[in-house]
Amino acid sequence: MFVDYHMHTPLCGHAQGAMEEYVEEAIRKGLREIAFSDHLPFVHLPADHPWHGRYAMRMEELPGYCEAVLKLRERYPEITIKLGIEADYIPEKEKELEKLLSDYPFDFVLGSIHMIDGWPFDDPSLIDEYANRDIDDLWDRYFALFIAAARSGLFDSMAHPDLIKKFGFFPKANVQIHYEKAAQALAQAQVCLEINSSGLHKPIGEIYPSAAFLRACLARGVAVTIGSDAHKPTEVARDFPKVKELLRETGCREAALFTRRQKTLQPLTF
Ligand code: ZN
Ligand code: FE
Ligand code: FE
Ligand code: ZN
Fold this sequence. Notes:
Layout: E1 3-7, H1 19-28, E2 33-39, H2 62-75, E3 80-88, H3 94-102, E4 108-112, E5 115-116, E6 119-120, H4 135-151, E7 157-158, H5 176-189, E8 192-196, H6 211-219, E9 224-227, H7 240-250, E10 254-259, E11 262-267
Parallel strand pairs: 1-2, 2-3, 3-4, 4-7, 7-8, 8-9
Antiparallel strand pairs: 5-6, 10-11
Helix pairs in contact: 4-5, 5-6
């Protein structure tokens, strides 16, 4: 595998290691292209909200983040470094998101659903809240947000597409219908699906997305991006042999790359 399009930095408040260390690890592992995609500040929260510096970088850090990535490009000509960002989809703030994303020369924008009505459902410290919820309803709402995000035109690829499975809570209803509807939305909007290896190290112990979800997307011609979601330098390209295996068994033969939000498809050779 030659690319990792999902890497964080300490700016988000929950990742470790200097940006140089991520780049050097990528070079060591033989990657040809990487994208930093740290968490964009929240457009629906005030600048001094405690989630800034815990879940995402602060607004005043965003220009420096972009400059730092562009500088790394000059420092490490042996690898292609893209300026990416991971942005939470905030349904009532599409205009604000669009404006913020257009203010910087991003190559690649990952869209994420980490919250269902203000609850960061993927935060292990808030897992108790699942007991107060109906899992079928949560899955419905997660996929409704996912589909709205895909259709918003704000994002190039949807990150960890079935993040709602993180702790292994599955609905009673058949999940295939969610995968089919989500796949249809991605295909229509021409948005990519991220293959994210970090799920292997979460309670679910499985890549995001599941093979069934990936198959539904590939059947409709959805392209994929590949990312480790590294929150430490050692996690760059983590478990990519397993990603390769999944891509091989599902017949996925190319991966998407982005330059200034323009997609190109690169054949996968394995
Ligand atoms: Zn993160
Ligand atoms: Fe995320
Ligand atoms: Fe991430
Ligand atoms: Zn992420």
